Amino acid sequence: MKAVHFGAGNIGRGFIGALLRQSGYDVVFVDVDARIIHELNTRRAYEVKVAEQTVEPFTVEGIRGLNSRTDEPEVIEEIASADLITTAVGVAVLKFVAAPIAAGLVARKDSQTPLNIIACENAIGASTMLQEYVRALLTKEEWLRLKERVGFPNAAVDRIVPNQGERDLLSVTVEPYYEWVVDETAINGPAPSIHGVTYVKDLLPYIERKLFTVNTGHAMTAYLGFKQGMKTIQEAIHDEPIASRVRQALSETTALLADVHGFSEAELRTYAEKIWLRFRNPHLSDRVERVGRNPIRKLGYNDRLVKPARLLLDRGYEPQALVQGIVAALAFDVSEDEESVRLQKMLSENGVESTIVEVTGLKRDDELVKRIVKSEMED
Ligand SMILES: NC(=O)c1ccc[n+]([C@@H]2O[C@H](COP(=O)([O-])OP(=O)(O)OC[C@H]3O[C@@H](n4cnc5c(N)ncnc54)[C@H](O)[C@@H]3O)[C@@H](O)[C@H]2O)c1
Ligand SMILES: O=P(O)(O)OC[C@@H](O)[C@@H](O)[C@H](O)[C@H](O)CO
C-alpha cells in the first residue's frame, strides 16, 4: 500500500506520515521545500520525539520525498499508483496541490483501485474544498469517470506540533496526545486501515468540537499573549488574566457545542480539562507567532472565533470572551506573517468596522460587529 502525503512540515512528519508508516504504508512526501526533500531522500528516516518524559523517541523509516516544483512527472506517477493521498499544507495551499493531484488522477486511467484523498487541515470541510479545486481542473467527462473511484472524506486532526528548531531539519517534537477522525460516509471502497484513525458517520460534531475548543483556546492564548509581549503559549497560559479569559471562552464554546451537538456537559468538561493540560505541557515550547499565524483566516466566518461567537449570539448567549479574542486578533502584528501585515494595513487605511466586515464576512449591521467595535474601543 502506498500513500502520497503533501506537506512534509510539522504535522506531516510528526503526525500523518508517522501514523501512515506505523500502519504499513509506503510513504512518499511531496513538498516545495527543497532542503527537506533532499534530507528525506538522503537519510530515508527521521526521528519523532514525544514531549513527555516517559516516552522514548522513535524513528520513522522507509520514507522518501519529491519536490512538487521540480519533480512534477514523478509526483503524477506516484499519484497514479497510490492507494491513499493525504495533505497537511495549510488550507490556503489546497488550491495549489489540486493541480498535481488532478493530473495524477487522470494518469490513473481506468485503474479500479479505490483511492481516498484526505485533507488533514484545520478547517471544516477541507477535503471537500480540495475536491472542488480538483474538479475545476478536470473536464466533465474526466470527473464523471473518476468520481466513482475516488473519495474525498473530510477529517479532523488534532496533535500540537510546534515549529521545530533549525538544528536538525527533519526531527520533530510532538505532544503525546493525538486524534484523527475521518468521515466514513465519503470513503471510496474499504476504509483504509490507518493506526489511530476513528471513522465516524457524522464528522461535524468532532471537527467543531476540536476547532471551537482546542483551536479557539489556542488562538485566544496566542493573541492575548502576543499583546502582552509574551513569546510562547506556555508563558501566556500561565498568566492568570489570560488564563481566565481563555477559560471563559472555552465555557462559552462548550455551552454552544452541548446545545448544537448534544455533547454531555461532563464529556465536554473532561475534554476541556485535557486541552488545558495540553496547552500547559512543560515539555513543549510553542511560539505565539505560529499559533496566531494567518489571522485573516482565523477571523473567517466559519473559523474558530467568529463562528462560535455568531452562533452563540443567535441563541441569545453573550460571547463576551470570544469577542475579546477577536479584538486581540486585530492587534496581531508580525512582519513575517503576510496576513498579519495585510490586516494591519486594512486597519490603518479603513478602520476597525470596515476591516471586521471584510475579513469576517459579517454584515455591517450584524450584532457581532457592533460588539467587536464596542469592545475594541473599550480595550
Ligand atoms: N502543527 C499543528 O499543531 C497542527 C495540528 C493539526 C492540524 N494542523 C494543520 O496542518 C496543516 C499544516 O500545518 P503545519 O503546522 O504542519 O505547517 P508547516 O508549515 O509546518 O507545514 C506545511 C508544509 O507544507 C509545505 N507546502 C507548502 N506549499 C506546498 C505545496 N504547494 N506542495 C507541497 N507542500 C507544500 C511547506 O513547505 C511545509 O513543509 C495546517 O492546515 C494546520 O492547520 C497543524
Ligand atoms: O494550524 P492553525 O494555524 O490552524 O492553528 C494553529 C494551532 O492552533 C494548531 O496548529 C494546533 O496546534 C493544532 O490544531 C492542534 O491540533
Could you explain the architecture of this structure?
With 379 residues, this protein is of the alpha/beta class. The chain contains 16 helices and twelve strands. A six-stranded parallel β-sheet has the order 5-2-1-6-7-8, sandwiched between helices. Helix 4 crosses helix 5. The longest helix is centred in the middle third of the chain and has 24 residues. The relative contact order is 0.09. The site of nicotinamide-adenine-dinucleotide has 27 residues, from helix 1, strand 2, helix 4 and strand 9.
Which architecture of the largest domain per CATH? 3-Layer(aba) Sandwich
Count of individual helical segments: 16
How many individual domains? Answer: 2
Order of adjacent strands in the largest pleated sheet: 5-2-1-6-7-8
CATH topology of the largest domain: Rossmann fold
- What Rg, in angstroms, do the CA atoms define? 21 Å
Give every kind of bound small molecule, once each.
Answer: nicotinamide-adenine-dinucleotide, D-Mannitol-1-phosphate
What structural category do the secondary elements indicate?
A: alpha/beta
| CATH class (first level) name of the largest domain | Alpha Beta
H/E element string? EHEHEEEHEHEHHEEEEEHHHHHHHHHH
Alpha carbon gap, first and last residue: 55 Å
Principal-axes shape call: globular
Number of separate strands:
12
CATH superfamily of the largest domain: NAD(P)-binding Rossmann-like Domain
Measured by DSSP, the beta-strand proportion falls in 5-15%
Q: Helicity level, as a percent range?
A: 40-55%
Poorly predicted parts: none
Mean pLDDT: 97
The largest sheet, given as strand count, sense and whether it forms a barrel, is: 6 strands, parallel
